[in-house]
Amino acid sequence: MADEYILVVDAGTSNARCLVFDRTGTVLGSAAHRWSYADEPNSSPLSRAFNPEGMWRTLCSLIALSMKDAGISPKAIAAVTATSQRQAVVFLDKSGHEIYAGPNLDLRAVFEGAAIDEEMGDRVYETTGHLPSFLLAPAKLLWFQANRPEAFDRIACVITLADWMRLRLTGDIASEPTLAAEAGLLDIRRRDWCGDLLRDMGLVSKHIPLLEAATISGPVAAEASATTGIPKGTPVAVAAADTQCGLLGMGVASEHQVGVVAGWSTAIQMVTLKPVLSPESRTWAGCFPGGDKWVVESSPGDVGNSYRWLGDTLFSGVPDPFTEMDALAKAAPVGSDGAVAFLGPSRVDMARLDMSLGGFLFPVPLTFSDLDRAHMVRASLEAIAYAVKSNLLQIEELTGTPSREIAVGGGMTLTTAWTRLLADVLGHEILVSSTPEVSGLGASLCARTAIGEFTSLEEAAADVRPLHSQEPDAAPSAEYQDLFARWIELSDGLQGMGV
Q1: Do 235 and 170 meet the contact criterion of CB atoms below 8 Å apart?
Q2: Euclidean distance between CA atoms 82 and 84, whole angstroms
Q3: CA nearest to 106, candidates 69, 137, 130
Q4: Which member of 55, 75, 107, 159 has the greatest number of CB atoms within 10 A?
Q5: Helix axes 474-495, 416-426, angle to 10 degrees
Q6: Of 78, 80, 81, nearest to 5 (Cα)?
Q7: How far apart are CA 171 and CA 341, in angstroms?
């Protein structure tokens, strides 16, 4: 086919990426750019916001660069789609102009979210499957109501970041259920807008159409064609939230399969046939793409970000720090000679997100040990694996079901020392994706399904190339069971020490 390629715009937490996939799921070309944020005078230090026009110019540039990198003509694009970080939202006025565009890192609504949770936290969780509210769109709306009332009065509807990218491409406003749910705007049981809840918060949101993933939202409009270079009329497909797309990109689509999308942050999701909520609101429940499945999620937190911090701190000036760190971690012993890391990844309790103390613990006095950077790197990777295990156990305890299959993807899979020791720590075979770009790959599967190459997303997920199997080694796996218990004990102690 002349038009056999899928172009994916993936607006992640740390950067924007555009990727061109061929029919085998191989990335032929890509381009990326780290996010920058607008300067907001008289705003909270925790605030983050995009400049919409600057962001769109960046995305248009990345689209052109990715097609150039792939060496293809824009006419060869069969469809284009977009996925994005969760909890990123855009507020529009009645003319469709942006009043606010904010990333998932925008924490301006901490106090508004706390007020929501104190007054109606149980209802919010029962309806949306998500807490704490300061991460979600309703709290940000209340922040605007309190701090920028003139702007608040002009807000006509709320969409997610991927919805906004499709709007820019097609001119049509619509949302997608997995994204709307992650923004705290959906009644996950009904897979429809939670209008009653919003009204009781004093908010009214325009109920725009909801389009399921793997459908066509419209063609590329003339104006978007002129700025992106994508031919007018090219189909624009609906994709899901980046984490749920990551599940599809790892072939995860059946009940009790588990996907670990390990990037800047890490999400662990199990596919379920109904919404599964925690009695203590410790976990999240969300929608699976396609309309008849859900996910239960527990997250270790900012995994890739903490590992990047370690690289920047210990290996400043090294041309390729992560390759060197991978080699050092493989050379260090199981258990890192007693070094233990607490750099952020932990067992999550979504109802009680707060800061705690962390760092490294070493056997002392240091005169009797020979600890170096290799021990610190391996200890960090071991801590990430312990955090994944503790959150996976939380899901299994909640559902009463062991994981049928565990797939792992995302940028952390490039650190092969981590995937090896993860299998050992879990004591379970893991299936490692052949590409770290699992969210982009999953989005491309949504597009291919939308244009008729697959009859369903389950069929598309089954077409994912076989993942590499990593089996646990018996001896280190047995040793890690005791080390994991020790890490949990120390972690619980640190959680009790407030900042």
Answers
A1: no
A2: 7
A3: 137
A4: 159
A5: 90
A6: 78
A7: 48
CB 136 within 8 A of CB 183: yes
Tokens of 393: 């156990």
- Token code pair at residue 166: 């499709």
Backbone angles phi, psi at 69, to 5 degrees: -65, -35
Instruction: Write the single-letter amino acid at 434.
Output: S
Full 3-state SS string of the chain:
CCCCEEEEEEECCCEEEEEEECCCCCEEEEEEEECCCCCCCCCCCCCCCCCHHHHHHHHHHHHHHHHHHHCCCHHHEEEEEEEECCCCEEEECCCCCEEEEECCCCCCCHHHHHHHHHHHHHHHHHHHCCCCHHHCHHHHHHHHHHHCHHHHHHCCEEEEHHHHHHHHHHCCCCECHHHHHHCCCEECCCCEECHHHHHHCCCCCCCCCECCCCCEEEECCHHHHHHHCCCCCCEEEECCCHHHHHHHHCCCCCCCEEEEEECCCEEEEEEECCCCCCCCCCCEEEECCCCCCEEEEEEEECHHHHHHHHHHHHCCCCCCHHHHHHHHHHHCCHHHHHCEEECCCCCCCHHHCCCECCEEECCCCHHHCCCCHHHHHHHHHHHHHHHHHHHHHHHHHHHCCCCCEEEEECHHHHCHHHHHHHHHHHCCCEEECCCCCHHHHHHHHHHHHHCCCCCCHHHHHHCCCCCEEECCCHHHHHHHHHHHHHHHHHHHHHHCCEC
Classify burial at 397, counting beta carbons within 10 Å of its beta carbon; exposed 0-12, middle 13-18, buried 19 or more: exposed
Pairing of strands 405-409, 430-432: parallel
What does the alpha-carbon distance between residue 81 and residue 440 come to, in Å, rounded to a whole number?
9
* Among the listed residues 182, 183, 165, the one whose alpha carbon sits nearest the alpha carbon of residue 174: 165
Q: Is the whole-model pTM more than 0.90?
A: yes
Distances from the Cα of 483 to the Cα of 12, 479, 486, angstroms: 33, 7, 5
Reported as a pLDDT band with limits 50, 70 and 90, residue 351 is: low
pLDDT in tens, 268-327: 999 999 999 999 999 999 999 988 999 999 999 889 999 999 999 999 989 999 999 999
Which of 2-11, 315-324, 340-349, 370-379 has the weakest average pLDDT? 340-349
Half-sphere exposure of 199 (CA within 13 A, CB side): 6
Tens-place pLDDT, residues 385-427: 999 999 999 999 999 999 989 999 999 999 999 999 999 999 9
Contact 59, 44 (CB under 8 A): no
